[in-house]
Fold:
Amino acid sequence: MRRTYDDLVREAETVSVDGWDFSWLDGRATEERPSWGYSRLLGERMAGARAALDLQTGGGEILAALPTLAPVTVATESWPPNLRLAASRLRPRGAWVVADDDEPRLPFGTGVFDLVTSRHPVATWWEEIARVLRPGGTYFSQQVGPWSVTELTGYFIGPHDGSSRDPEQARAAAESAGFEVVDLRSERLRMEFRDIGAVIYFLRKVIWIVPGFSVERYRDKLRALHERIEAEGPFVARSARFLIEARRYGGRPA
Structure:
């Protein structure tokens, strides 16, 4: 039976958005994946590390799926529901999960890690990452690029500046903090939202796309977008992603 607008809204408004598992969207939304394969590359680097730190780990989904973790693996997260999920996934793998407030200073000593990673961090604290890395250590990250999903943001809040998170700005910040950028790639990727429930779930989970989003606040726009999707097909947007790998100056880890 075809679900009504109210059914779709009710379901998407009440389902849990904890963690960074997007499997609830299967069959309802799609997003192309970057060609470089972040998880595969991360697994290769993790297998060669002795002490690794994953910042803003979410629910620990990415680390938990890797075939091998470094002998010492630590993950940080700030949001309590995600902390619980990350601990349940990562502690059985021998990893430590640390509560952190997503602000410098990182709660670790100087030069204790040879690999620091992060997938889609809110911010990158280059000076702090340099501090906790050993000389020659690596920062490896997939990040959200500029003008990501700007079509959806523009629909709800109108014209806005989405030019932050530029890869070249990241390069400059890394170099200023004492890193050599050894890899930097970027891509724009097609997204499709096939029903209004998918839109609501995505905006509840990825809160920076439409800051302050709620169903009540945007009820009229949501109804209009539902009718548009029903009449014309999926709402299409473009996400932006970039991969950055940077090595801290000072030689390779001993």
